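protien #1 (seq + structre)
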Amino acid sequence: MTAYFIRRLLLLLPTLIGATLVVFGLTRIVPGGPMEKAMQRALAMGEKGGKDAGGSLSEEQKEQLAAYYGFDKPFLTAYAVWLGVWPREETKQFVKFEEGKTEMPLTLKVLLPKAEWKPGNAYKVTQATVSRDGRLSTGSEDGWKTVPEPEKQRVAVFRPQFNGILQGNFGLSTSYNLRVIDMMLSKMPVSLFYGLLTFILTYAVCIPLGILKAIKHRTFIDNASSILIFIGYAIPGFLLGSLLVVYLAARLGWFPTEGFTSEHFADLGFFGKIGDLLHHAALPLVCYMVGGFAFMTMLMKNNLMDNLAADYVRTAIAKGASYRRAVLGHALRNSLIPIATTLGGITMIFVTGSILIERIFQIDGFGMLTIQSIGDRDFPLVMGIIFIDVILIVLGNILSDFFVAVTDPRVRFE
């Protein structure tokens, strides 16, 4: 069994590469990327400030933008740079030579370690000169590299550095100019809160309810609960959220209409903060649970009913076991095996977030971050989210296999 799980973990790498490669390819071909945004901003500034205010970008400025966002490289090379197996051309700049000059001055800037930052200055600045053939007068100790481009009368100057996913760098958001990893980590507590509560409440309620429905099959309790369950299952979570916001929050004022906490949350005491969190979370949690609630309850009920009709349960009762012992001691464990396959979803609670539900309740979580990154064409942020999602999904599937093996001793992964 150990060898099986090791093989599954080794498959994580090709799965991760395949998924991110596809998404990375889509980001290269869809319109409206960061370069188009920069051009639109320049055009807007030109319209606001007059025709001489830089309303359009020169070809050299466009090339610098392409180099900054990584669009100056072939597809596979750009992907390797993002992954961190190919050096990134840091602080790339183009030095344009004037007619008759063989050397041009330039300023070299190197970002210092954070511990060495000073107020208003985070860079080491060096003045240098570069010749037409690419010789740099200084700065070689910082690893600068030059590439002459005689056909364009210029020299490209940059620092090659491995600085991608493998080095822990997810890049900067093109919309907010913040580190992608910091943006994702800042949203995870909200997703963790809702994901963990949804996960616990779903299993804590659905498993006992499924057992009760199987034991009381075709009684009033079973029929009444089935009607309520399937009514809830038939209503999409986002539609239910809209109804709850309008009637219970906006009209009746029983619950807040939006947000994760109140504005005065920091001034509350410990129990006041807990109450405020639960008060804001009540309606979103109902919407999160409404879909999976019916599925989990009916899965538990149907599996238990199948096992109650099995020969080994009748044999246990014939040998003198009580009905309660036959249900809880024999049939229940086998009925939990299909439930165990869903336990791997616990890994997704770190990024769980319904985009529509979070938008309805204005919850600033991972789901809202996902839709914002797609809408803003924020490709580094999109790639970071996909990277984390793929890892958690694969780990969740492996975890599901592990729980099945623990629950069912007959399962042997070879």
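ok now protien #2
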Amino acid sequence: MVLKRALDLFGAAILLLLLSPLFVLLCLLVALEDGWPVFYRRRVVGENGEFDAYKFRSMRQNADAILAADPVLKQEFERNFKLKHDPRVTTVGSALRKLSLDELPQLFNVLKGQMSLVGPRMISPPELEKYGSHKELLLTVKPGLTGYWQVNGRQKVGYDERVKMDLHYINNWSLAMDLKILFKTPYAVLKREGAY
């Protein structure tokens, strides 16, 4: 675990340094299309309780109102916590999601020790109930910027299968598994399968 944390710190710091020009460009693109703020804080759960995970904002500023006004969309969202054809997503936001660039600000969460480069999926407090009797196990580890689910299906698999993938990662974790997932992540991102 000490080596995992060292990898997190070193990896996040290097990536933030190398990607700083991209951060500036993405901030400008988000702001030009839909104004400020360019970052979105998603309330999620981790091993030390709830925290705000940072993302580039990919939805319109009135996203909550759009969802609340459409009962069918709201029901679909409450079932999967994701919408395949989401009318709230901006044009820039759609591109960011397909390439997983909206997740890059979570490198700051990794530096703060709230997340890891590799771990289970980041989930919101209401999603925790989907894990049933396994929710305490989920809260023993930090959520990951990438993970087993992200390189083995993403949105192509149902929620029950996502839960199984998270549990598989937690129960079989090793530093070698983390390194394998890290090496597979760029390929999974470039394939863009299951990304929306």
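The longest strand covers residues 39-46.
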